[in-house]
Structure formats: C-alpha cells, structure tokens
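Review form for a predicted model. The reviewer records the input and the model, then writes brief findings.
Reviewer: anonymous (R2)
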Amino acid sequence: MAPLLEVERLAVHFPTASGLVRAVEEVSLTIERGETLGLVGESGCGKSSLGKALIGLNHPTAGQIRLDGEEIGQLPRYKRRQFARRIQMIFQDPFGSLNPRNTVGRTIEEPMIVHGLGERSERRQRIAELLERVGLPGEAARRYPHEFSGGQRQRIGIARALAAEPDILVCDEPVSALDLSIQAQILNLLRVLQRDFGLAMIFISHDLAVVEYIADRVLVMYLGRIIEAARADALWQLPLHPYSRALMDSAPVIERALQRQSPTATIEGDIPSAINVLPGCAFASRCPHALPSCVEAVPLLREYDAGHWAACHRLGGEAGRLTLAGELLV
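Model under review:
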C-alpha cells in the first residue's frame, strides 16, 4: 500500500536580485496515516518553505508530491481542490493567520464553504462541535480574534484546519509563540485530536524537546536538505550526523548529551546563505570533522541501521560499530 503522502526529490527555488535562493533541495519523505513526522533545524534551513510547498502556498521548482499514490501536479483542477482540502496547515502566528474582520464562526466556516461541505445549518452545528473539541465555548463563534489570548487563537486556528476534514495537518511552529504552560496544552490537544480523527501530522519546529515529545519519526534539515532521518527514540539515543549531535548537545533540556562518551559537540558560525550554494556538503564550513573532499560532493543519505539514515562523508561502519571521524559511536 502506498504511503498517505509521498514526496520525491522536491525542490523549491526563489529567484531574487542577488541570485537563486535554494530554499528546499531534493527532499524526499513519506508519512503514513496516524503518524507524526517531526521536521527540525535552525531558522533558515527551509522547514517552513517545505511545509508551504506541501499545502500549495509555494510552487515546487522540481520533484513530485503524491497523495494516496496520485501525483498532485498531474491532477485536474477539481482534484487539486480535493487535495487542498485533505492537507491543512496550522500556522506559527496565531493572530496574524486569522482575519481580524471575520468572527471566529466565519473563520471556521470559510473552509467548509470553499470545499462545499454541508448546508448552512450543518456548518453551524459543525462550528459548535469544533469549538468544543478545541476547548472553547460555543459563544466564541460570535466574537473576533482580538478578544482572545494567544493560546485561544491557536485553538481557533486548529478548529479552522479541522473544518476542512483533512487527512494531514502541517503544523508550522504552532507553539513557538506561546508560553510554556500553554505550549503543553496545545501539544496535548493536538495528540488527542490526531488520535480521535486519525490524522497524520508533519510537525515543524526548532525546539527539540517539543519534537521529542510529539513525533514518531524525525527529519533533520540543514540548508534545504535532509541530513538525517530516524525514529524519534533512535535519533535521540544516537544522533549520527555532526549537525544533529550538535543540535542535541546545545539543547539544555536534552539530558542524553550528558550520557554520551564523546565530547560535547558545538556549532560555530552561522548557517550559510541559500543563495548560490557552493558544491559539496552544506555543513562543511561549520563541521569540526570536515575534510577537503567534503566541499567537492554532496553526501547522499545512507541507511546505517533499520530506518536510521544519515548523509555524511566521514560517517563509516555498520550498525553495532559506527564511527565518526574515527571516533567509535556505538
């Protein structure tokens, strides 16, 4: 059976006066029904550009997106609208993503109108049900976004995404603008809704603790490319790529770094520009293990253990005896 969503060698480029911005470069991924796929990396690595390409806000430069085995770019217009209904986004800014001129009820009803879901009376009932599911009273439908707190606005955004009856939610940093206590409430809400509605989720975040909590599998992204992919538990137990290891060690809430025998990894310098990217490994300019050959060829993703992939020229060995730059990892 085909995965629910399959992305193959997707690229998203933006022409600018300074050159071509390669925001996403040859990204491939799959997601199954009911699965949560985490996407992590520093700001500017291309996470949000990828997420927006999946929902159609960014036009892919190359590659394929398949939903239930159907290639989206080859579908007639009416089927593309069906695709748009089946994959919805929860945005980072819970206020900026809501139209301040619309009531909450109108905001939630709009996707149902666009996709022809239900008569007016049915839509009103659905709005009340969705508000209840996200923890808001029914009378909230008559109010406006500015009357709510940040956490409540994000609940409204979640209700709007669910109104289209999607199969997949793309969550683009959905809790980064919220206080810690509110973050936990929204994350728990998403997990409950995922279970109850059978949703798949692509969860984009720079916060490793959040991704560790919610994701089944994790993709680590750097300068537009996936550089490591693994089950969440496997990645946190043994990150293979130097960039992944440095991300883990730089997160104060992650205690696994203290359990490793190797010295703590650090990331020096800034992420390079995505304009006119140089050949070779994009992380080479910041990697403590880089060789001259690292600037000559882009490393390919290689499977080192069941379901655990990494792209690094200096990573060698097989499962049970992995080394990085001569250092035994496991």
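Findings: The CA atoms of residues 318 and 326 lie 13 Å apart.
Further findings: DSSP finds ten helices and 15 strands in the chain.
Recommendation: see findings above.
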